[in-house]
Amino acid sequence: xxxxxxxxxxxxxxxxxxxxxxxxxxxxxxxxxxxxxxxxxxxxxxxxxxxxx
Length: 53
Description:
Layout: H1 9-26
């Protein structure tokens, strides 16, 4: 992205959004082969009685 120090906050926001949108259009994410969240480690039961921090 170009130097945005001279721009106002609103203009900076617009340019950031535009560049983000452009980047998304240029290289989209490939669809995943597995269900979302299926690769996460599953927690059976939390230890009861102890304070969670």
